[in-house]
Amino acid sequence: MKTSHKIGAARLIYHVAHAGRSLLGRTDRETVVRDGITYDLDLSQGIDFAIYLANVYERQTRAALRRLVSPGSLVLDIGANIGAHTLPLARQVGPKGRVLAFEPTDFAFRKLSRNLELNPDLASRVTAHHCFLTATDSDQVPAAIYSSWPLEHQAGLHAKHLGREMRTEAAKARSVDSVLAELGGRPVQLVKLDVDGFECDVLRGARNMLSTMRPVFVMEIAPYVLVERGASLDEMLSFFVPNGYKFYDERTEQPLPSTAPELLRMIGDGAGINAIARTA
What we know:
By secondary structure, this protein is α/β, with parallel strands linked by helices. It has helices at residues 3-23, 46-52, 59-68, 86-93, 106-117, 120-123, 176-181, 199-204, 207-213, 223-228, 233-240, 260-266, and strands at residues 29-34, 37-42, 74-78, 98-102, 126-129, 131-133, 144-148, 164-167, 172-174, 188-193, 216-221, 245-249, 255-256, 273-279. The chain has one domain: Vaccinia Virus protein VP39 (Rossmann fold, 3-Layer(aba) Sandwich). The strands form 4 sheets. The protein has an 8-stranded mixed beta sheet with strand order 5-4-3-10-11-14-12-13, covered by helices on one side. A two-stranded antiparallel sheet has the order 1-2. It is globular, with a radius of gyration of 18 Å. The model has no long low-confidence stretch (mean pLDDT 96).
């Protein structure tokens, strides 16, 4: 399903919920516990509202992460946003594991930090990086990146996925390989990658990880956002296929094509598919 269709459906439900809460004198700000994890939510935001609604946000991705993440492992959450996957991952890796969460926008990083504060036992297993992952630590950080999906109609939203760009004033440029070098070469077991078109930027700075550690990736493949960032599906695949990666459907784990033309035939404009990439 296209993101715009998901947001459209969420908007309808949100307006009903918002009206009902207003009658009871309640605002869009709500602190909830979902699956034993506490979240501070703004219900006018798409990710927050999906967590509020019985934690329906990316259920299939959460299920895939539960299958794939091992206790005691090092996991990267690239595009952490408010921590919807960061916190469950911290629970999965256990007290001997570690989650590195990367979020470049000031807006989402504040929300991520707040949700970590609300879950101190899990937060102790997380290192949150307010940075933009790219080829080198000296690269320029984009002034704004999509990290807000408002459920109220607003001007200036993305024409296809209905997101809003948010500022990155406090974010630094880092590369995955330089961050991992500071950890003394501890191997990465899994990477959750969701960066709305910046995948190639991230992967340019992760060549050593890809060639030596070869972690499992859980990721969205959305060709239209790659093109918007001056990249392509061919370029993204060039980081994976030569390193022995193959692609699988996130839900069924059935094999997916590993060539751009075949994948493009499966994915409509303005849409994406959730995939697992791993070596044989």
